[in-house]
Predict the structure of N-acetyltransferase.
Amino acid sequence: MTDLEINISRMDETKGGKLIATVIGREGEAEMTWSSTGDALRIVDHTAVADSLRGAGVGLALADRMVEEARADGVRLYPLCPFFLATARKHPEWHDVVEMPQAKR
């Protein structure tokens, strides 16, 4: 399998932002969005990956970048998005910035 060149850009908006991923040589894009609840917390609320990029590791690349950005910006992440939550469960090394939801009883 050939390594893909995944390019990720960040777009900040008034109440949140998003990371947008493209892959050299492939159509489509992927995005991971967040809402800000102030200066200290971002709610990761949505991930979308074009069918042409599914299974290529683009979603994981977005999640990795989201964690890197949170560390660099000194904020915490709350995973409302099911994809990001499931991925964060597989990466306990992210829990320094990811606030894992409490299990429902």
In short: DSSP finds two helices and five strands in the chain. The radius of gyration is 14 Å.
